[in-house]
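Assess the record.
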Amino acid sequence: MTTIIRIILICFIIFPCNINGERRRCMNTGVLFTDKIIHSPIIVYGEPLAKEIYVDTDMELLFNVTFRVDCIFKGQEDIVNRINITEAGIKMNRSACQWLDPGKFYVVFLEKCESNMNVYCPLDFQERIVDDMTYELLEKTCHLTRIPSLHSTSNNCPNVSMTEFCPNDEIDVKIIPKQKQTEYVQPNIRTSFNNANQFYVQSNGTISNDKPLVARIADNPHGHASLSACISLWILIIAVGATIFF
């Protein structure tokens, strides 16, 4: 009976460990929303319409996305209503990954690919899924535009950079090359918020308020497997100890 219990417990821990092994390359890099804004040459808001995986190996998971652009927050004004995003997903030598599942709205951080006028590549940032907190961040984040995409039949742009939060929004924000992301601190931008779930960007660096564990998992829903593995390990230790002493 003891042997059967141990086998069941071992199987119980192997499953979440396998999930964690597959997804450990896709971690929350901890880059704040304002830092993504500063370092991104192109920022769009919209919905993925189709997703096609073209690389699926132990090291990489890459896919192409047909993306409907509802609004341009930053970058060139001639971005058409439907664009193609390539090399999205889990890629070697890239810290962040993208998911871009159809049926949801996202804020996506892009750069122009050299191959085609209508093809874009994701920066080394994870996209932000749109929820109430995202809309609030967009209203309180300065230096964003609100431009419908080219050939768009409707204006679905959310409110961004509201005047009460960005009275000096005529100041230009310098675009930093992606190679310099970890070395750069923007000393002149100060964004202040009033509740515990928001953050402060100050001249002496970036300070992020601690959030509860549930909120951190919500920010990175694909990182929950690591937590599951830890819990399973503790359960295994307790169970083995119980079989030994009882």
